[in-house]
Design a protein that fits this description.
Layout lengths: L1 H32 L1 H22 L5 H15 L2 H4 L4 H21 L7
Length: 114
């Protein structure tokens, strides 16, 4: 059991460090700049997680990618937001910003052309 835990930490330790750093930075932003800035930071964290998922999973594994992102995004949200935002709301938010980013990247304009 101990060897399995060590192996998991060895393989995914970098991810734990990244998530802890993002959480710490997010809490600092909330205290320093307020909740609006924190929402912007959440969006940026979501983009970062989406990029990591794109690199980790193969083409056609979209549902696995989104589940992976949600599994890391929702726990990273401040507890104050979790009172008003459910996991399903977070999934809707993530899907919306993914669709917006994809739409923007196809021709440089947000015009529902994807």
């Amino acid at each position: 059991m101990d060897e399995q835990l060590i192996q998991i930490l060895y393989e995914y330790g970098w991810l734990v460090v990244i998530i802890i750093a993002m959480l710490g930075y997010l809490l600092w932003v909330i205290k320093r700049k307020g909740k609006t800035a924190a929402l912007i930071e959440l969006r940026e964290m979501a983009y970062s997680l989406m990029l990591i998922a794109e690199k980790r999973f193969a083409e056609g594994e979209g549902c696995f990618k989104m589940d992976w992102v949600i599994d890391r995004f929702y726990p990273a949200m401040p507890n104050t937001l979790k009172f008003i935002i459910t996991r399903d709301d977070a999934k809707t938010f993530l899907q919306t910003i993914y669709d917006e980013a994809r739409d923007y990247l196809d021709d440089g304009v947000l015009n529902d052309s994807n």
